[in-house]
Amino acid sequence: MRNSALKLGFQFVACAIASYCTTQTALAQKLAGKGLKDYYKSYFPIGVAVAPRNLSGEEGRFIVKQFNSLTPENAMKMGPIHPRPNQYYWQDADSIVSFARHNGLRVRGHNLCWHEQTPDWIFKDSTGKQVSKQVLLQRLRDHIHTVVKRYKGKIYAWDVVNEAIDDNPNKFLRNSLWYQICGEDFIAKAFEYAHEADPKAVLFYNDYNTERPEKMERVYKLLKKLVDAKVPVHAVGLQAHWSLQEPSGTELRNTIEKFASLGLKVQITEMDVSIYPWEKERRPLHPGEKGELTSELEQKQIAKYKEVFDILRQYKKVITGVTFWNVSDRYTWLDEYPVQGRKNFPLLFDTNLQPKKAYYEVVNFKR
Length: 367
Prior knowledge:
Layout (H helix, E strand, L loop, with lengths): L1 H30 L4 H4 L6 E5 L6 H10 L2 E4 L5 H4 L9 H12 L3 E9 L18 H18 L6 E6 L14 H6 L2 H13 L4 E6 L5 H16 L6 E4 L2 E3 L5 H12 L4 E10 L20 H20 L4 E6 L32 H7 L4
Parallel strand pairs: 1-2, 1-9, 2-3, 3-4, 4-5, 5-6, 6-8, 7-8, 8-9
């Protein structure tokens, strides 16, 4: 009797597994042939951050199928593109723009003014001393005009100022060299310079952890000051380096509505969903720690991606784009940050460029 019950139990489990697999296979076949961009055609562009190495062969074809917008991951940041006072390095940035134009993809420029990946020379004079505010603003203007004008008509939007809000909840603006030398004037000036260089470009302020209520309020304070002063800021970028723990649905809704109340458009500019809780400071790998997408973590990631995209679709009149930060789990910046050598699996495609289960939750919705 007991053996019969066990046999029936095993048969039930086997049938359930077979049914699930059949359903998943049928869903995959139903959704085959389309890319992310096709499912969201009536909502917003779907983009991805790339390096030149991503643009050829299998990965290049994959990008064209799945996405309709590109962001240079590093190629247009000030350090890589303007390493010395009288030297610009255009090759990587040009290759990305050329690939996009050849394949009919839009391009977001990233970024024009940031406290990281900025060459030391821009803050120093010929003797190594710190430059004056006037000199630094002139250098910023020259840089922005040179870069933006080169891609005028080819890049529709720019992350103009990146991460100017301090990480400390008790402070307002980050105490960067830009701030130490220029005060907060460098922010408004950067937007003015970008608008001068390309009056048709959509200009963004871009930052992370914008869904945390305390930081959201400080970003809002900055944006309201800029809007009230008639500074040409048009939109805000939510970087969306999220995790299984945050943001909550309520926090995401509140953030979108708060910034939209200023008359600004919103984009998700650097999206990934880490399987680990947020950490800011770099640290070594703990003993026994390894990167593994367990079944439990996978289910939580599926649920988070579904929650996020369910909300984003509801705000399609405000959200003007969603960009993933890297192409697939084959390589992501989170593989090295903040824990060196720890593998992460934060994207919708696995290391073989195949859709993960979370992908199907993102694209399988009523239109």
